[in-house]
UniProtKB/TrEMBL annotation:
UniProt family annotation: Belongs to the UPF0102 family.
HAMAP family: UPF0102
Transmembrane segments: none
Pfam families, alphabetized: UPF0102
UniProt cross-references to PANTHER family, sorted A to Z: UPF0102 PROTEIN YRAN
The name this protein goes by in its record: UPF0102 protein AABB81_12195
SUPFAM superfamilies linked to this entry: Restriction endonuclease-like (SSF52980)
Superkingdom as given in the UniProt entry: Bacteria
Length: 119
């Protein structure tokens, strides 16, 4: 497996651990609908957090969370609309981005709640 794939898998695990520590239960990971893949779907009380995880080994070219593009946002919103309807959920949906920079032994995690409002 390529090292960037391994880094992505590690980043998603770090994000899962982070969310669980914040009191979220994990409903899905790497959930797919049509062309969309949702990294993490987590819930805390009546909030459904749809989490896109971006992991990098450096922030030289920018912060990881800055790499979520409009096309991805459209895919995620369509997918989660389907998920909420299919699961018959009565929740507030929030789109978060967790940006992780993992370099050697140093790890930084930035959690942007309602991240799509920040773009």
């Amino acid at each position: 497996m390529a090292s960037h794939n391994e880094l992505g898998i590690l980043g998603e695990q770090l994000a899962l651990d982070y969310l669980v520590k914040k009191g979220f239960s994990i409903r899905e990971k790497n959930w797919r609908f049509q062309k969309a893949e949702v990294d993490i779907i987590a819930q805390k009380d009546d909030i459904l957090a749809v989490v896109e995880v971006k992991t990098r080994s450096s922030n030289f070219f920018g912060e990881p969370q800055d790499f979520v593009r409009d096309h991805k946002i459209k895919l995620l919103t369509k997918a989660i609309d389907h998920y909420v309807q299919t699961e018959d959920l009565d929740v507030e949906v929030r789109f978060d981005v967790i940006g992780i920079v993992k370099k050697d032994l140093d790890t930084s995690i930035i959690h942007l709640e309602d991240a799509f409002y920040h773009f």
